[in-house]
Design goal:
TPR-like_helical_dom_sf, mainly alpha, KIF-binding protein, cytoplasm, cytoskeleton, 21 helices, KBP
């Protein structure tokens, strides 16, 4: 078998050599043809062209053998046939007869090496395929012969239109595989560009599965969102929503599996929309907040003045962007985009419009990802919903209404947190405990600010004190629950904190200390107990960081304040003790 392959290879190498001489015979030697035999070189050229075509045909056979072996997981045999195809084509000039095969075989070798995690080998084959396509389109551009035509009769040859479509589809595959390669190499910007171009070409060629295309576009949106490129992110998501609609509904009971698949993919696209709205609100908050986390009105005014210029830039950006869509879908995509802000919301009205869109997609996502069967997904969606409320609350000037938004967060997360099984969902429970603790703390601060605004003096009425203490205790309870979740089954707190819980644990200790010192009581023994618990937790932060100096960087601010309080609190405790002794 090996000897036979070598003989074939040598024979076809000779054929390729003949093909290489064809152009020379046509363009140079023909000038020297004698008058009595004016077409001698042309006839020789025809013979060489035929030899080149035979080389391409044998190369195609090797290609199909290679693909079959790869498809049946005989990778080494597949590689051998594909490389035989490459060798046959090596000494042939790229032409309209063989350019499609040149690209297909490199695509297949790219896939083969990528599957072996040899990403750079794959990159080499695919980038060569790309450059062959680009050079061919620049120098020739005519619809090239498709490989299937090597083995069909004259009357069954493809139309120019079909040839072009198949050739462009092969190059689309090159771009698709390159997007994967660049992603694996960590070249995310380049990967996104190739992914975007692939999606656009699939639409133009009308060669795509609507739901798969939509999910890829929605996934691409997440890259743009992380880069703060909300216009491109919105465009991808709008296109994903419109194109997913082309998949239609499947009413037949016999196709329940496919119907379930469609529902899941649409729910996943809804989740991408949630992330879009959430990130847009959060990035806007970062832009507008002052050094204590409140709305900076001067900055807000400044950004509003700059808004018109931003809107003009957005319009220019839209015109220069690579937009998705065909004649059938372009208007639908643009119509959906117009309903969603892509510039940073600068006030409550704008923020609320983004929030409501996000909340609508929360409802859609929860319809599929229900607690029964999708516990983790359902809770992640609830956490995003809570984060949407938190981001919106930043823009709300009315403190009562802001407090109610945080109460909504508590109402959606608290029952879940308390019902979850710690054995199976420990990490999720810890996240929920921490978020609930922080939410109660924010509500406590808001209630105190409101009370101080309404009171003429610093004295608070009993109702306000009771409410404040209730919120304060609830916050401390959830921080303590988080800390307790770190203990061994015997209830012992770890001597050394794992890296992933180091900062949360130190912050929780610090916050518990702070909360106990803020509890309001007129009973001295209760005051003393609260201050002692506060001091105990401040001391823990200081002593842990002294014993593990590398931990200090994880909670610098908390450590600095803890040291300060470890110095001050004993004085306060001693004064209280002295007062209690004097009263006895």
């Amino acid at each position: 078998m090996a000897v036979k392959q070598q003989q074939d290879s040598a024979a076809w190498r000779a054929i390729c050599d003949k093909f290489n001489n064809a152009q020379n015979l046509t363009e140079v030697e023909s000038r020297n043809d004698p008058e009595n035999d004016p077409f001698r070189s042309k006839y020789k050229s025809f013979e060489a062209d035929e030899a080149g075509m035979r080389a391409a045909k044998l190369g195609a056979v090797e290609y199909y053998l290679g693909v079959n072996h790869v498809d049946t997981e005989e990778l080494s045999a597949g590689q051998e046939h594909l490389m035989n195809c490459m060798k046959l084509l090596e000494r042939c000039r790229v032409s309209s007869e063989n350019v499609s095969l040149f690209i297909h075989v490199r695509n297949q070798l790219g896939i083969l090496w990528a599957g072996r995690d040899e990403t750079e080998m794959a990159q080499g084959f695919l980038e060569t395929a790309e450059s062959i396509y680009q050079r061919y389109m620049k120098e020739d551009g005519s619809p090239p012969t498709d490989m299937t035509e090597y083995f069909t009769s004259e009357e069954n040859l493809l139309t120019h239109q079909e040839r072009t479509k198949r050739f462009e589809l092969a190059y689309t595959h090159t771009m698709y595989y390159l997007a994967q390669v660049y992603k694996n190499l960590g070249e995310t910007e380049r990967a996104a560009t190739y992914c975007h171009s692939t999606l656009q070409r699939q639409l133009q060629l009308n060669q795509f599965s609507p739901m798969e295309w939509a999910l890829n576009a929605a996934t691409l949106s997440q890259y743009y969102i992380t880069k703060g490129r909300y216009m491109e992110g919105r465009h991808c998501l709008s296109a994903a929503t419109v194109i997913s609609g082309l998949a239609g509904e499947v009413p037949s009971e016999t196709e329940s599996e496919r119907r379930e698949h469609l529902r899941q993919k649409r729910a996943e696209i809804a989740r991408c929309w949630i992330k879009y709205c959430l990130n847009l609100l959060q990035d806007s908050k970062k832009l507008l907040e002052d050094n204590i986390g409140e709305l900076d009105t001067d900055r807000q005014d400044e950004l509003k003045r700059a808004r018109r210029r931003e809107e003009e830039e957005e319009e220019k950006g839209r015109k220069s962007a690579l937009l998705f869509g065909s004649e059938d879908t372009f208007d639908s995509i643009a119509s959906l985009e117009e309903k969603v802000l892509c510039l940073f919301p600068l006030d409550f009205t704008e923020a609320r419009s983004v929030f409501l869109i996000g909340q609508n997609y929360v409802t859609q996502a929860k319809e599929y990802f229900q607690m029964d069967g999708y516990v983790t997904d359902h809770i992640e969606i609830l956490q995003d919903h809570s984060s949407l409320f938190r981001a919106l609350a930043f823009f709300e000037e009315d403190l009562e209404r802001r407090c109610k938004m945080h109460k909504r967060r508590v109402d959606m997360l608290e029952p879940i947190c308390n019902d979850l099984n710690s054995q199976y969902y420990l990490l999720i429970r810890r996240q929920l405990m921490f978020e609930l603790a922080e939410t109660y703390s924010e509500m406590m601060d808001l209630k105190l600010t409101l009370a101080n605004r309404q009171a003429d003096t610093q004295s608070l009425d009993n109702h306000t004190i009771k409410k404040f203490n209730s919120l304060c205790s609830a916050s401390a309870k959830y921080f303590q629950m988080f800390l307790d979740s770190l203990c061994s089954p015997e209830g012992k707190f770890p001597d050394v904190l794992e890296e992933e819980v180091l900062r949360p644990a130190l912050v929780a200790r610090f916050r518990v200390a702070r909360l106990h010192s803020r509890l309001i009581s007129s009973v001295p023994p209760v005051q003393l107990e609260n201050l002692n618990r506060s001091l105990e937790n401040y001391k823990y932060v200081v002593q842990y960081c002294e014993a593990h100096p590398e931990a200090a960087a994880a909670a610098e601010t908390e450590l600095e304040l803890s040291k300060e309080m470890v110095g001050l609190l004993p004085l306060k405790i001693n004064r209280l003790k002295a007062r209690m002794a004097a009263n006895n």
